[in-house]
Design a protein that fits this description.
Blueprint (H helix, E strand, L loop, with lengths): L1 H5 L9 H21 L8 H32 L4 H19 L2 H16 L11
Helix pairs in contact: 2-3, 3-4, 4-5
Length: 128
Amino acid sequence: MLTIFFGDIKHGRLSRLAYLGCHAALIALLVLASFGLAKGPEDSALIADIKLAVLIAIAAVLLVAQANIAAKRIRDAGLPGWWILLLIALLSLAIGALFGHELIAGLDLLLLLLLLVLPTEAFGRREA
């Protein structure tokens, strides 16, 4: 499983169903980490800060894994994975700055749906 999330950064590919499963697993891991590290009523300020730092570190690692599986799925559709992902990130930042961050959530959902319905090699086979 770790190989899927963090391996084959340059040349890996991921089918639609595998992408859906990996995406769901990453969301479940983030939710479990959030509940597991939630601030308890008897936690001191130091413990709460440590839990927050650990949660931020876990979220950063999961973000890298999410970017890798998205790049693999984009590559499977026949496009250059990391370049398209960089373009999407820059567009999201620009749209968020111009129109507000509420619109970004809708665009993220649209991207997820697009990656789920886009067939393998929709844009022709391209080597990464």
